[in-house]
User: What shape does this take?
Amino acid sequence: MFDLSSTALKRAPSWAASLPEELQTPCFIVSERGIVDNLHATARACGGVERLMPHVKTHRAGWIVKRLIREGVTAFKTATVAEVAMVLEAGAKHVVWAYPTVNPAHIRTVLALAHAHPDARVEALVDSAAGVAAWRLATNGAQLPNLSLLIDLDAGMGRTGAPIATATLQLARELATLGCFGGWHVYDGHIHDLDHATRRKRVAAIVGEVTALTRAAEAEGLSRRLIAGGSYTFDLWPLTLADFVSPGSWAYSSAQHDLELPALGWTPSAYVLATVISRNSTTATLDAGSKAISPDKPLAERFRWDGKIVMMSEEHVVVENTDLAVGDRVMLLPRHACTTAYLYPCAMVLTAEGSWEVREQLGNRR
Ligand SMILES: Cc1ncc(COP(=O)(O)O)c(C=O)c1O
Assistant: This one.
């Protein structure tokens, strides 16, 4: 008979040594302690946990939101309405829906959530007159005391956002007339230079433009509140300008952060456990294909490997290897943890108390 206890765990971080023997693979493996340590490192780098508004898109897990609230996080950023609902259900009292859509069904859902959670502050983004009109239509012009709208600014990413220009003040005036203007939002996700000084310089240029705009807003009696930044820039936004900073992917970190942002001291805390199912003289085949590790990065980079990743299909990945045996289990560190977490409705979590537990997450629910 095949002796399961003889299957070796390879290329695993030390915290995974106690992983249960019998697990169906591929399996998403998370360290709660790692997330909390990463939170502390992130809070230190941005001037305090009260300034941190973590984006939840990385993990999409209510249990992580609850844990971060226990650690002092007061506000969360989201991209989808399911994330908004998840964050509010987890007990958060401040959520920003950072997605300036005009989709009326989504807007109505977020309005219903704001109604259902009157003790929570709910904020959403607009970046156009059409956005203002969509919210005006959905609310019928009525004010919700716990809802406000922020103006999304395009800092050069070219994805969403109104220009950082005085003309954009008109949108703020319109929202103020509706009684719901809450301030400004900037995401500078196009800045990922490896050199910190280069990132600093590029953020400083945006800071100059945003400062001019928010000063002009303030001079008219409009809010200058600002939410800014992602994992590569959150530590560069001045305390005097950005009330909140909103990096997200630090929660699990990744092979990419490990390489590119070592100074932030984040520890990779989410892996995919895979099993070697076949091998030949120079390669091993593992059960972690593109349905187990997201294929949104080039093949060679999808996870950290000490050799070539030869090919990946839906349920298989073939890697250059000479030391693994059929049945060995391997912990793969994804290059992009966010899109990999999305593939799993639950995670096997090493709790801070040291036990293993299956915990739910949104996975691919929108
Ligand atoms: C609007 C917005 N804010 C914040 C973040 C988090 O940034 P990061 O992934 O760099 O941590 C993202 C990530 O995509 C985002 O789209």
About this structure: The pocket of pyridoxal-5'-phosphate is lined by residues 55, 77, 98, 187, 189, 230-232, 246-249 (CB under 6 Å). The chain has two domains: 4-30+265-360, 33-252.
